[in-house]
Amino acid sequence: MLDPKALRAVIFDMDGVIFDSERATFEEWKALAARRGLRDIEIPYRQCIGVNARRTKEIMLDFYGPDFPYDACAAETSRSYHAKYDGGRLPMKPGVRALLEALKARGLFVALASSTRAAVVRQQLADAGLLSFFDRVIGGDMVQRSKPAPDIFLAAIADTDIPPERCAVIEDSYNGIRAASAACMAPIMVPDMLPADEEMRRLAAAILPDLNAVNSILCT
Prior knowledge:
It is a single chain. The protein is an alpha/beta fold and 220 residues long. It folds into two domains: 4-20 and 91-219, HAD superfamily/HAD-like (Rossmann fold), CATH 3.40.50; 22-85. It is 46% helix and 10% strand. It has ten helices and six strands, in the order βαααααβαβαβαβαβα. It has helices at 21-36, 42-48, 53-64, 70-85, 96-105, 118-127, 151-156, 174-182, 198-203, 211-219; strands at 9-12, 109-113, 136-138, 167-171, 186-189, 206-207. It has a six-stranded parallel sheet with strand order 3-2-1-4-5-6, sandwiched between helices. Helix 1 packs across helix 4 (70-85) and helix 5 runs parallel beside helix 10. The longest helix is centred in the N-terminal third of the chain and has 16 residues, at 21-36. The radius of gyration is 17 Å and the shape is globular. The mean pLDDT is 96.
């Protein structure tokens, strides 16, 4: 159950929630697939949404075979992505800043838990002028197990007196919703590239169309 008045913390995912970066990254992988003649890139890419770099590599190698040059491909897409979007050019999702301002005005603990590496997360948030809103930032390289394990969300409130059941998690990915549910937190799904399916409707405390709707639920 989601009781906004009982909340003490809100934890955000980053890619696909704060930034429109899942689609941006997918465009780079599609371009690479066209250059290299890779088949069906959308199938493994969708499986990679919401997981860390180690698990992403495993998924790609499972799909394309052990000889797939994943490291070279990942480096190639990373170079083109950062050339396009670094320096504050990564598009933000509508309503991000207003929601963060409203949560801080409520006095809530606000954290970010992303499968992306922590250094990249901090840089992208800083470039967008958002880093100061977050009391804690946890990257995928800071925990042993990737989503859908609950580790990253539990790390976001470690060493605080905030119980998991008083936390809401804003996520777009299936693995993120699974992880938030496993952490005994209230998952709020804001779908991006993946639509809410029957499992998500069962696990999520709420499924909302955008961050403006989240703001209306949590802060009004």
